[in-house]
Design a protein that fits this description.
The chain is of the alpha/beta class. 41% of the residues lie in helices and 16% in strands. The protein has a five-stranded parallel sheet, with helices on both faces. β4, α5 and β5 form a beta-alpha-beta unit. The radius of gyration is 16 Å and the shape is globular.
Length: 190
């Protein structure tokens, strides 16, 4: 029997009808049962300003986010691409969680990245730019399979469910491999 793992899902888009949020929900649905996945909201986090940490004026949203993330075993990032990079809201969440220095909530947590786009490039730039940050944050990140979902608008029904069987199967397999990756990194850390 596999160990249960708490997995935070960070969605890089705040748009009400966000493809990333719909895809995140589909990935949660397709994940193995021993993964307890939950979307952790990042849209209300104040912009990171080191003065707040230095002066012990930590915003309540930061404290809640850091406390929640400290309870997680792994993180699944689901993001669109903005200007060949990650959206600012996602970068802000990464910065908030990485501080104060020496108290990062990210260190050692298994990670995976799924990028998506209505276009053919499928968020390739955001996916790889995010991976650069994850290396610095010491998050062992799933390397294969890579997950770039292009043409996302055509893969979802009006309720936000994945309708393409090939994409559903790819996402199911991706989540199974991610679950194994979490198990592996947890054993190495123990």
């Amino acid at each position: 029997m596999r160990n249960s793992h708490n997995v935070a899902v960070l969605v890089g888009s705040l748009r009400r009808e966000s493809y990333s949020r719909k895809l995140a929900n589909a990935l949660i649905e397709l994940a193995p049962e021993h993964l307890a996945l939950q979307i952790v909201e990042i849209g209300t986090l104040e912009h990171y300003n080191q003065d707040f940490d230095d002066e012990h004026r930590i915003p309540a949203s930061w404290r809640t986010f850091r406390d929640t993330m400290s309870l997680m075993d792994a993180v699944l990032f689901v993001t669109p691409e903005y200007n060949r990079s990650v959206p600012g809201v996602l970068k802000n969440a990464i910065d908030v969680g990485s501080r104060p220095h020496g108290q990062s909530v990210w260190q050692g947590k298994a990670a995976a990245v799924v990028s998506n786009s209505p276009g053919a490039l499928s968020g390739f730039g955001a996916n790889h730019h995010l991976r650069q940050s994850l290396v610095f944050l010491d998050m062992p990140t799933l390397q294969q399979p890579e997950a770039y979902i292009g043409g996302i608008a055509a893969l979802l029904d009006p309720a936000g469910r994945l309708t393409n069987e090939g994409t559903r199967e790819f996402c199911r397999k991706f989540m199974e491999v991610f679950a194994t990756w979490i198990d592996t990194t947890a054993q190495v850390a123990a």
